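Hi D.,

Good news: the full-assembly prediction came through. Inputs first.
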Amino acid sequence: MLERLFSLDYRRRRLAAKVPAGPLRDYLETPFVARKADCRQLEYVALDLETTGLDPKKDAIISFGWVLLRGNRIDLASASHRLVRQHGAIPEASAVIHQITDDAAAAGADLATVMAELLPLLAGKVLIAHHARIELGFLNTACEQLYGGGFLIPTVDTQRIAQQWFERRNRSYRPGELRLGNLRNRYNLPRYRAHDALVDALAAAELFLAQLAEREGNHPLPLKDLMLRP
Amino acid sequence: MEVELIEIREFLASHPPFDQLSDEALDHLPRELTIRYLRRGTPFPPQDAGQNCLYIVRKGAIELRNPNDELVAKYAEGDVYASACLPHDPAHTLSGTAVEDSLFYLLPCDRLQTLRDADSAFNDYFTQSISTRLRRAREILQDTPRSGGNLMTVEVRALIGRSPVTAPPTTTIQEAAQLMTRERVSALLITDERLLVGIITDRDLRSRCIAQGISCTQPVTAIMTRTLHKVTPDTPAFEALINMTRYNIHHLPVVDSGGVQGIISTTDLIRYQSANAIYSVGSVRKCQSVAELVQASAELPELQVQLVAAGASAYQLGQAISAVTDAITRRLLELGEAQFGPAPVPYVWVAGGSQGRREQTVHSDQDNALLLSDDYQPEAHGSYFTQLAQFVTDGLNACGFVNCPGGIMASNPQWRQPWRVWRQYFDDWIMRVDRKAAMLATNFIDMRAIYGDEMLHARLHAEVLRQAKENKIFLAYMATNALSTRPPLGFFRNFVLIGEGDHANSFDLKLRGILPVINLARIYALSAGIPEINTVERLKAAADAHSLSQEGADNLEDAFEFIGTLRARHQAQQIKQGIAPDNYVTPEELTPLERNHLKDAFGAISDLQTALAQRYQTGRFY
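Then the structure:
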């Protein structure tokens, strides 16, 4: 609990001092974006993970999808989709959801390879995810297992932003209304048929653009207004 | 390679101009894009755009307005805004707004240029010249025969089966008959040295020799046809067929500078599938009663279906259908004269509207009038022409050319008058100068002689042309009428964008696309004293006379032909489905590319309407 009293960047420096040399320490050595920085000028990585379940301690990451945003633009050149090689069979239920078979997963890359590619991209940027707890939890576990230290990043959670929007207006909402597809619909965003990690990362990125555009005016919008409380 | 961003790739692949790109180019394209989101009410392109980009609307809508705040265009899903990449695009003066929350794919202009350089079909879409785009659109639409039959493109020379059988003028009739029997031909060409002087056919031997009791030892010159219709080897077969239908002839000599090359017959032509219907309708001359004519004209819809399937242009279709209608009209007049006796004074039957302009489709009503010699005495001759006009207009109505809603028919006594009265009518219309007079004159200026004393009409037409050309105020009223119908702005989703906030599910291709060109062409023709009636011919002549720029004439012709061909195809589909053909087209019937081309066509028409409005200052005449 005490951790929450410290700023995210302070915690980053402390963690960087503890973690052995490697991709995670390299990542942690880049300062985080200031909480006062203007949201419209920042760089983001929208990330989605497909996993075998919801528990980072027991379940595994099947695939990563990410795309970069610069200010209010999504840069599709950065769009990436990575399958992770599985040790053990993918539970049938999650195979059905993600349409990733054992064979496809066997052709994937090692988790360490993908993490080593992703961490430098995240350095100095803000993470975007829809219901970010899952992505943060699995990245944290992956870092602990691979690099012997936890994971930290300034994050905007598109689901949390939507929830705050309802709460600020004292509007009641059904949990279903916070689902990515339903929120996208509210902002007149297109319906995507496929659902892999990249499409969902892109979907969250577009939703974030819409949420950003909803904040009227051209005056700077500090990151802390949208950021997930650590 | 796994294609990532498959959703975006598929979206691009289903919208012009990206649908033109190769699979490989499409695989790579999504990675070239960035995505932006604009809330409703945001200026477009966004003020913080930075680098110039092409915008593809992925979701949502934008409006473009001119400096007078008039709506000029509206874009929705799949539409492309490229003005920022096209330095001379007139849309630069327009201001845009997102009118819905909108998501865009952006392609930087330099990347667009790379794609354009690599793919000429893709590049065509961005060609600055509307002329080039219209020309291509028309070619694509008309060069895709949907079934066999290439009568539209094949030349007459390809149909000449054998070297011609000829004989000198000194040949006796009997020798000619023997030669024809030996050579197994039904027509013999009579040549003097290499010069073609006449033709005799099996029928001539029967009707002009045996039936008339002429000795078969006489030379063939006694019975041969001397006034010959002939064609050159490079004549399109289709045109030859139209001529044969128009003049009711079954054999057509093919002649070039080297002399007679051969002869083609209707049999040669009907070997081509598409000719069946025109041949059977072309036989209207043989019909002995209105009932038989009704039966023959029932084939007209099938003729349109076949011609469209063979890739006929609107011009060709109009020529074909009008030729058949002319033949039916003539036959009705012959049957009428047979029933009521020969005409007491000379007259000419004139047809107006689409028949007059030779632009008919099966969905046309009748417009006609009777122009009588000044020898006409109402007491003595009135009842004869009343009967004749009623007989012919009723016959046409029975044949499917329904009565003109405006009552412009020879059965209406007002439009069945001697020459001097017609002359007064035109005097009145041209000198009275108001919009209604100009409208009436419009109907009758497009009249064409169909049957009877053609000189009566030619004399009137020449005087009217001279008078109209000199009367600038009359022309200004004509121009005001011509500009009363504007083409649509374009399309918005599955709607037609007619004007300010006005959407329609379907639109009238004739009213909104074809009539505006007909009206423009008529004014260009009248202002230069051009006698042509057909719209395409008027435009060509107007360009030659510098009454209209060559580019303007070409654009209007291409727009007219493109829209007309779309209409002909639409009607052919309705006929095939057993629906009565009409002019109402829904955007769903059109491919995205056709919608783009139609928008170009509308744009070309609109530009020339604006130019005409300035020339005649039509604003003063409303």
